[in-house]
């Protein structure tokens, strides 16, 4: 028989760690620019955005194949169309639209896809609301001991 899951143990910890590493590496590759080889007379810079896109697509495929969810705050930093990391001023432009409803519009400079996020007063993501946060068994035991 298989092992029983202990309370407080995270299922698929290695996969989440791998996805986290790929996301961090993709963010780093988006911000880094490398110099072209010195044998050319022009001083051109080469960015590593294609490598960053590959890391994000790999991260998404791991999540899809293993049926793991990506946190909504991380999803908001990814372009749905081209899988690039959306960093303001580097790979995305940010505008605030006031009509018909106030929203922050983030546009990917790589593919031109725009996404809107509501900016109403008191607005929270579903995952950030206190009633939706899962408490572990240790938290419950500590509250009973007080």
UniProtKB/TrEMBL annotation:
The keyword Metal-binding applies. GO terms for biological process: tRNA processing. Keywords: Metal-binding, tRNA processing, Zinc. It comes from Gigaspora margarita. It comes from the Eukaryota. One of its GO terms (cellular component) is nucleolar ribonuclease P complex. InterPro entries: Rpr2/Snm1/Rpp21. Coiled coil: none annotated. This is Rpr2-domain-containing protein. Belongs to the eukaryotic/archaeal RNase P protein component 4 family. One of its GO terms (molecular function) is metal ion binding. PANTHER family: RIBONUCLEASE P PROTEIN SUBUNIT P21 (PTHR14742:SF0), RIBONUCLEASE P SUBUNIT P21 (PTHR14742).
